[in-house]
Amino acid sequence: MRRKKNIDLRIENCGKWYNSFNNEQKDARVIKKNLIDFKEFFGNENDVVLEIGCGKGKFATELAKKNPNINVLAVEKCDNVLVAAAEKARDENIENLRFICCGAEYLQRYIGDFSISALYLNFSCPYPKKRYSNNRLTHNKFLNIYKKILKKDAYIYQKTDNLHFFEYSLKSFSNNSFYINDISLDLHKSNIQGNIMTEYEEKFSSQGFPIYYLKTSLNKEDNI
Q1: Residue 23: band (very low, low, confident or very high) from pLDDT cuts 50, 70, 90
Q2: Given this model, what pLDDT does residue 27 score?
């Protein structure tokens, strides 16, 4: 994607809503800690939930607005996309929402152990070719990161329009000690309540594609 005009100035003008960390150590296996103090970051001690791959921020923005008693941390590695999301949050003065420009593989550098109350994976890139499978956000490489940063009773929520990726994710979660707590092969025709639609979800569902959904955790209680 071509870098947008004046993006550096736009990022600077986003203030506290846009945060970029300098990943000078490119080997993600080397965890050089620079942990975020969430109390200082958000100005309160409310629970923090995380969305990885937030895109233009529609889901994170709506989640934060509907739930002022939680803090929403949204991560996206493409600054061209993220800057518009941060500008919207700034313009609407959404105090419980922050954006981070960062790859998911670096999250343990900035997020402390057992500090995230819920994780959302909305329409992550499926990387359909097998040789790129380790880039999928439900690959065991990333699941091991989630195990570190999630609270013990936290849930992971995933939505996708890609059946093969969904099947892969189910197997990956199950093979890595996660329990499937809820599942739907057509979310919009299910009785699951409180769904917030993303930009991609609106597009795919309007074209008649089913939305696949799962809820998983390391907690065995109420698994299906």
Answers
A1: low
A2: 60
> How far is it, in rounded angstroms, from Cα 193 to Cα 168?
25
Q: DSSP letter string over 109-172? A: HHS-TT-EEEEEEES-----SGGGGGGSTTSHHHHHHHHHHEEEEEEEEEEES-HHHHHHHHHH
Distance CA 219, CA 224 (A): 12
Tokens of 118: 């819920």
CA separation for the pair 205, 8 (Å, rounded): 35
How many degrees, rounded to 5, is the angle at CA 104 between CA 47 and CA 194? Answer: 45
Q: How many Å apart are CA 65 and CA 98, to the nearest integer?
A: 12
Tell me: the pLDDT tens digits for 113-147?
999 999 999 999 999 999 999 999 999 999 999 99
The token duo for 5 is 């005009």
Residue whose tokens read 């941060």: 86
CATH T-level topology, domain 48-217: Rossmann fold (3.40.50)
> What gap in Å lies between CA 120 and CA 110, rounded to an integer?
18
Secondary structure tally for the chain: helices H, strands E: 8, 8
DSSP state for residue 211 in the 8-state scheme: -
What DSSP element (H or E) covers 51? strand 48-52
The one-letter amino acid at 59: F
Measured CA to CA in angstroms, residue 14 lies from 2, 146, 151 at distances of: 20, 28, 30
Half-sphere exposure of 146 (CA within 13 A, CB side): 29
